[in-house]
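Weekly modeling sync, notes
Attendees: S.R. (lead), two postdocs, one rotation student

Agenda item 3: backlog of single-chain predictions. S.R. asked that every request posted to the team notebook include the full sequence so nobody has to chase files. The rotation student volunteered to paste the first one in as an example of the format we agreed on. Action items at the bottom.

Example entry:
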Amino acid sequence: MSHAHRSRCWSLLARPYGRIITPVPYLIDGNNLIYAMKAAGLELGRTGLCSLLTMLTARSERVSVIFDGPPLPGVPGPDSGQLDVAYSYGLSADELITDRIAADTAPRRLSVVSTDRQIRQAARRRRCKIVRSEDFAKLLIRLAEAPPKGPPAEPPEKRRGLPPGEADKWLKEFGLDAPDDDHP
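Predicted structure, as returned to the notebook:
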């Protein structure tokens, strides 16, 4: 790949002022993961995968997914909050992913999701965590099937009130007088 062509691709992955988006905890080979999701029994496209990946971002995880080719209508843009979506346009997504691995400033914190041999070798050289797409697909399916966590349960005392004398005990503990029954 020529230097000018590579520079153009990096500009697609760059933030304002030319800073590259690094590090991210998860760097995902999007098309590879879509195929793994299908093999695991869940058929979805780019939009569906991005929706599932937002569950990870809801857990304060930064996720970057790179797809082959140009963006399709309706698929999230380059940056949707904690989910960074990038496209390879005329290049191979594998090449962009390996470039991102090479440019990452903290590669040991990076989890690379792919079953592609070239990507896994690049990740291994930089000592990134490597997650097979099939295993990550199973994790996403479990997250999708898990019941949503609601707010923490209220303590029972909140509903039924304190036992008799408990409020007086705490008022005395803090040096406050118990309220008189005569005054409102």
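Discussion: group reviewed the output briefly. The first helix runs from residue 3 to 13.
Action items: rotation student to repeat for the remaining queue; S.R. to check formatting next week.
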